[in-house]
Amino acid sequence: MTPTIAVLGLGAMGLPMARHLAQSFTIRSYDIDASRCSAAADFSTACGSAKEAATGADIVLLAVRNRDQLAEVLWGSDGVVPVLVPGSVILLTSTVGIDVVRDVAHQLINQEMLLVDAPVSGGPVRAGCGDLLVTVGADDTAYGKALPVLEAMASTLKRVGPRPGDGQCMKTVNQLLCGVHIAAAAEALALARALGLDPAAALEILGAGAAASFMLGDRGPRMLKAYDEGGAEVLSRLDIFVKDMGIVTTAARGVGVSTPLAAAAEQVYLMGQAHGMSARDDSSVITVLAPTVS
Amino acid sequence: MTPTIAVLGLGAMGLPMARHLAQSFTIRSYDIDASRCSAAADFSTACGSAKEAATGADIVLLAVRNRDQLAEVLWGSDGVVPVLVPGSVILLTSTVGIDVVRDVAHQLINQEMLLVDAPVSGGPVRAGCGDLLVTVGADDTAYGKALPVLEAMASTLKRVGPRPGDGQCMKTVNQLLCGVHIAAAAEALALARALGLDPAAALEILGAGAAASFMLGDRGPRMLKAYDEGGAEVLSRLDIFVKDMGIVTTAARGVGVSTPLAAAAEQVYLMGQAHGMSARDDSSVITVLAPTVS
Q1: Would you tell me which of A137, A157, A262, B123 could form a disulfide with A117, CB atoms 3.0–4.6 Å apart?
Q2: Taking CB atoms and an 8 Å limit, are B195 and A135 in contact across chains?
Q3: Predicted TM-score of the model (pTM)
Q4: What confidence category does residue B294 fall into, taking pLDDT thresholds of 50, 70 and 90?
């Protein structure tokens, strides 16, 4: 019998993940936004509540936005924990922070639930074709139960440790670099333009040598469109990095590691948020550093 | 007749460049450090002064460390300008800053000399096999005269503008990213270790995804050796980035662009210098952020 997965949270990542998993699993879906539920109705059983979606599911996959949504979907008024049987597997794909996940896992163990900490990377397009990077922290039992789903989601699957939170650790380090590299690309292209260089030509030269990064190649071309009417297409919201760089600097502080660049990058994203750019593409940080084309 | 190039400055970059150019040109060489001159004696005419090396040369190639050495080799007590004929080409391969090069070019024009601003990137190994990235600012006449030498040095040759200083502009933007990416890699690997992840495994995962950068792949493995006895082999001195990030932040300030990450990176390198790490490999910045392995 095909396993049933309840996918809770049908946002930028949850919806394409659910659509892709529907090729191999029976999907029951729910989002607090009714329009997102409708978008999932063609490939899944769109449910009227999280509890309804989770009831009877073999695995509950959570694609929530942040720690508040996580607590709400587990233990809130429409929380799923009361409807789950002992031994149920909760597969958390969100980046919510190390201590948050450790706390949640601890509470769930007391309720005889298994948490698989499996934050994903790669963005919506790759989510839609099972091409994600997934870093996992989970014990053998939980990992074994979630493995078929994880393998369907990921092109690169790395179990980095046996404890929930270990996946978040790896994702936190990953986001440190991603967040710094995007902000650094913005600084470089803003400076190139201000110095009178052709930004597109500069981007090509930079990407060919020691200055190259994945993010320069990916976000750089979008930064060149950031000053156009409406800005670059939103592929990754700026406020994701407000959240993630907050997780990074909190984690670093917690273990006593100095991260001045990550801290500076966090301020750039916070400034972007303060300037009303939360829902814009993260490439628009270049307009925080250099608001106008001179 | 084979053109003669005077190579002044036989340091980490100058010596391998001179050795490589000796395959195609007659080389006359000089360095203020006599031991460096000896190292060049097997493939060039090692001279006793900069003036002696420059006399009669078709092109004077400068591979100096900084702006002070540049001024000294041009106009100091052993400065070459007095022995050069009008129309001589001075090929500057060093990263010394935009305004410095514009000022020098202005003075040289008054003395009927042509300056080719051609800062190089790629490190000593690539310098030795003509595999450098060279970004050039020069007018048509100067560029035309220097072209055979530039082509011999570079695998990627980009003339980014017609004025001396334009090459420095491009190099400045390049170094912003290089300096930030190295410091960010150090933050990431220090954090990974402190969070209990295996640093080598983390490096492999990071390098496979959106967190990747050229510098992470190049310096990351050296950072893993930074805590070993003696540290990583010195392939690129830390104090080069003290100089280069100073050039970056000065340039950004000059054109009114905010570069908080570059500024934070500059402080990390300055701190490394203050801790006596000037002559160590730049990968040792990880020990600035995390002095001991916990």
Answers
A1: A137
A2: no
A3: 0.95
A4: low
